[in-house]
Design a protein that fits this description.
Blueprint (H helix, E strand, L loop, with lengths): L1 H27 L4 H12 L4 E4 L6 H11 L4 E5 L6 H5 E7 L5 E7 L6 E5 L6 H4 L3 H6 L1 E4 L2 E4 L5 E6 L12 H6 L2 E4 L5 H11 L13 H13 L4 H13 L9 H6 E3 L3 H17 L7 H6 L1 H5 L4 E2 L1 H6 L3 H18 L1
Parallel strand pairs: 1-8, 1-9, 2-5, 5-8
Antiparallel strand pairs: 3-4, 6-7, 10-11
Helix pairs in contact: 1-3, 2-12, 10-12, 10-16
Length: about 325
């Protein structure tokens, strides 16, 4: 009982601190509360986030603000078609000492930080994009045959332009799966855009300040993993993820007819963690079935794909996820 009481106290204290962090962030990134919550949840889970939206919607501003508020050593890499892997990871250079001795020295790249902002990640070539694969999964990089550990915590928040724009390269499926969540950044509504206009074109702007430290974020990530999850929520996560696999017996006819491949076990892990983080951000002690259904789109949309026939018809993957999640939710609630 004492252990349970301590956990409740920790969750409540962290919830208050997260409210402070959200208040600071939303003063600089105005009117996009869901985007802020999903991004914060990804950090609380110890994962990476992919922010997708048109240029000029504030994605870069959000990541820079998060770096300050969460007390992380942040670095930014502008991805371009001529960017090379060594520009991100670093490289060994041959140096000559004062005594004339020559030796290789490793020059660390910008990936050696706690929060890497990969700006317009799909502007770079597939070769350069793949430089992040090992770092995002293993928290280390191998350069010149030597493993080098990255900082703790290590997060990648990448921004991506819609793939229909010119000069972009689609991210490979293996890399997309390493992003815990895809966060769509929409246009603001009229009132929000008015607030942005007034807040950002005057003499003074809101300045972000530190609310968390890196050590406090690590402690929060540990707390998220200790939050209890009910058996009903676990079963819904499994039902939802497996329902999107065309070869699974539980999938519907619309999935088998329209989906080329479905999400793997990493999607279920992401749903479990994100549901806990969402409950924490909402001031609750454990996640609910509603959390799982609400997170279905951002967790699953980049981990599955429509087949050729569905794409040719112009079908929308988001609509399919919403319909299937609603069907699973009704079955679970009825049970």
């Amino acid at each position: 009982m004492a252990e349970h009481a301590d956990l409740v106290t920790e969750i409540e204290a962290l919830g208050e601190k997260l409210c402070q962090a959200k208040a600071v962030i939303t003063k600089r990134f105005i009117g996009q509360e869901r985007v802020v919550e999903l991004t914060l949840a990804a950090l609380l889970c110890g994962g990476h986030g992919l922010l997708v939206g048109l240029p000029g919607l504030g994605k870069t501003r959000l990541v820079e603000t998060l770096s300050t508020v969460m007390g992380l050593d942040g670095k930014r890499v502008q991805f371009t078609p001529d960017l090379m892997p060594a520009d991100i990871l670093g490289a060994e250079v041959l140096e000559t000492g004062a005594d004339g001795a020559r030796a290789f020295k490793f020059i660390r790249g910008p990936i050696f930080c706690q929060l890497l902002m990969a700006d317009e990640i799909n502007r770079a070539s597939p070769r350069t994009q793949s430089a992040l694969l090992q770092a995002m999964q293993e928290r280390k990089v191998t350069v010149a045959g030597e493993d080098r550990d990255l900082d703790i915590p290590f997060h990648v928040l990448a921004t991506q332009n819609p793939i229909e724009q010119e000069g972009t390269y689609p991210l490979p499926e293996a890399q997309l799966d390493r992003f815990l969540v895809q966060i769509d950044v929409p246009y603001p509504d009229r009132d929000t855009e008015r607030d942005i206009l007034i807040a950002t074109t005057g003499i003074e702007e809101e300045v972000a300040h530190e609310v968390f430290s890196a050590a406090e974020l690590i402690a929060a990530q540990d707390l998220v993993r200790r939050m209890p999850v009910g058996e009903t929520v676990v079963e819904m996560i499994l039902d939802l993820v497996r329902a999107f696999r065309p070869e699974d017996a539980s999938s519907g006819e619309d999935i088998r007819a329209n989906v080329a491949w479905g999400p793997g076990p990493r999607a279920a892990q992401a749903l479990m963690l994100m549901a806990r983080a969402r409950a924490l951000l909402d001031g609750r002690l454990s996640p609910s079935a509603e959390d799982v259904l609400d997170l279905a789109h951002p967790v699953l949309v980049h981990r599955m794909a429509l087949n050729f026939a569905a794409r040719a018809r112009g079908d929308d993957l988001g609509d399919l996820i919403a319909k299937t999640a609603a069907r699973i939710g009704k079955i679970e609630i009825a049970a």
